[in-house]
Amino acid sequence: MLNFNRSNDRVLVLSLIAFSFLFPFAMKAQSSALIRYLPERKLWVVESDRTTYVVGVNEQGQLQNIYWGKKLGRDEDLQAAHTRPEHASFDSSETMSSLEYPGWGGRLYTEPCLKVTLADGDRDLVLKYDSYEIQGDTLKLRTRDIQYDLIVTLIYKVFPHEDIIRKSSQVENRTAQAVTLESAQSGVWYVAPGDGYRLTYLTGRWAGENQISQVAIHPGKVVLESRRGNTSHQLNPWFALDEGGKADETHGRVWFGGVAWSGNWKLVVEQTPAQQVRVVGGYNDFDFAYPLKPGESLDTPGYYGGFTGAGFGEASRLMHHLVTDELLPDHSTPHPRPVLYNSWEATTFDVNESGQEMLADKAAKLGVELFVMDDGWFGKRNDDHAGLGDWFVNPQKFPRGLKGLIDHVNGLGMKFGLWFEPEMINPDSDLYRMHPDWAMNFPGRPRELGRNQLVLNMARDDVKDYIFGVLDKMLNENHIEFIKWDMNRHFGEPGWAEVPPAEQKEIWVKYTKNVYEIIDRLRARHPHLEIESCSGGGGRMDLGILTRVDEVWTSDNTDAFDRLRIQEGLSLAYPPQVMMDWVTDVPNINGRTTPLKFRFLVAMQGAFGIGSNLNRWTDQDFDLARQMIAYYKSIRETVQLGNLYRLLSPREGEVTANEYVSRDAKHAVVFAFLHSQQFLYPPPTVYLRGLDPAAVYQVKRIDGKLTDPQETLSGAYLMNHGLNFILEGDFDSTSVALERVK
Ligand code: GLA
């Protein structure tokens, strides 16, 4: 660990020499390190396998971004940081320069990373470099206000194989007075200065998550945010900027990233008068005030950023690897998700022991590995008007408790999972009758219901401890190995009357921190527990929750055709492994009917589950399902943990095709879907990617829908000649698996 004052570069060099005598091996490690300090130019170079990120101290003593992009390699090429001069008297030097973490003060007119008000009324904040520390993959740059003991430490962790860096900041109040933070961002990413960038982002709504939106970036700001208390279906905290708006799946410079926060978040994409293009991200500063007493500090969420020169496909794969290899709870030993059955669409609230057992018997015969009972098992929960908050087994539905059902499910060789909605409360519940004040509210004002429910004020520690207690008790008393954690409305009237008015807006941050804490404590107490994040479908999908849960319910929209687009959008940012996809009955959400095979193949492109009412299935349905699930099990490792190549987009034509290739390129699987055929045109050629051209692959068909009859094909053939499928009519589909034989 190194820690030196900026004025002490000479000391740094001397100490490094002494250090190298004492610890020659440590020095060696340092020279090939991911993070280097170049003292004569006051630069820090952060390197990943294919990228370089450089930050320096300018002549004003401020941290300034120098470079972020493809790997440079030669330190001699790098210049020290220099502020850019003001542009007339109107655009100050700080507005013109790419400051790494600007406080709002002086003459800063661009989006700040930190804005404060001190108790004495001072609102001017100018952060200057103080010292640094490098520890392996982590760099800490400490800054301090020019007058006050307000310390802001910028923390960078590099993920070398994913070409991604995580930024965050820690704001410490070491003054003798209270300080209120009015904006606390995790950091800002700068792409190369210029014009003509394009922003890609994910938008949507309930049952229509993750639609891909693209806008040209012009001078001004584009704000993506959530003001809803959780991540939201409406906008996802992920962005990509591509140079000139020219990138596609395989080509082009793409800078991308995301905020790891499941509460109110904000991303501000700004093109400044200096033609800097920057993306500030962190806590949403809307309705935000976070007081720090002397000695207190606030940590901002992780803000990830990555770069690739190889288009959106590679950007996605890097994000996927980040999640599977670095973030998910099982990242040190990644393993594919089990095949799941969920009772919701079959039974809705009408659950009981014999009905669930009947479904479990049928699910087990199909090869299901995890049986999940959804809503309706607790309190007086017969519809969505009552029961939330009363996390006790309903004695009419389960007179013997859950033990009988769980034993039955386990006896069939399946794990048992259970649905909870811990953050919610129905006014018609014993919990509400006991603690009406636990619901978020402004005293004396209306409490507006959403799905007949209110939001518990999880920012309160007594509420947090209570919810942890009931969940922990359920897990202690029952052999529950999986939780579906739902959240079916957003905040409203976010009052917190129990704390002084100056602290009430902390509710936005504390709520999410407490939800995270409950999950973390549950996982620590129940190490084998697995969790699915759900918020009326995919309303809570972000890099913060993905360090705590194993998968996410993608959408309440399980219509297979709609799902092609929802899943494509999700895959821009998040890996197939966390994307829960079910086969359900038709017509589903929108009256459309698609063949069962089409539904299976769509759902097999992520973590697979079944949500159908198996009591209504025919023998033919069961036969097809057994075959499909056996096929899925043979390819799921490739699908969930391999590399995804989006070959044909559902947004661009009548055929969707996706390919998954194992990391060692020995296995691959292709899915192809015809949405609707017109004029008897055959589907376009599908060119595969990511294979070894010299390798020979055995071709495994699930049907006769491939024109090429060969038993084996080379990687070169598959990628250059491509495959031609026979897909006809509406909603036809097929899949081909490839296994390297030479
Ligand atoms: C939400 C979820 C569904 C289901 C219901 C239960 O809508 O997204 O999957 O769990 O709640 O009420």
Compact summary:
Helix content is 22%, strand content 30%. It has 742 residues and is of the alpha+beta class.
Key terms:
single chain, 742 residues, alpha+beta, Beta-galactosidase, Chain A, domain 5, Immunoglobulin-like, eleven-stranded antiparallel sheet, 14 helices, 37 strands
Report on this model:
By secondary structure, the protein is of the alpha+beta class. Among the domains are: 32 residues; 293 residues, Beta-galactosidase, Chain A, domain 5 (Distorted Sandwich), CATH 2.70.98; 86 residues, Immunoglobulin-like. Helices cover 22% and strands 30% of the residues. It is built from 14 helices and 37 strands. The strands form 6 sheets. Strands 1, 7, 8, 9, 10, 12, 13, 15, 16, 20 and 21 form an 11-stranded antiparallel sheet that branches. Strand 32 and strand 33 form a beta hairpin. Helix 1 crosses helix 2, helix 9 runs parallel beside helix 10 and helix 11 packs parallel to helix 12. The longest helix is centred in the last third of the chain and has 23 residues. The protein is globular. The chain starts with a strand and ends with a strand. The N terminus is likely disordered. It binds alpha-D-galactopyranose. The site of alpha-D-galactopyranose has 11 residues, from loops. The site of alpha-D-galactopyranose (GLA) has 11 residues, from loops.
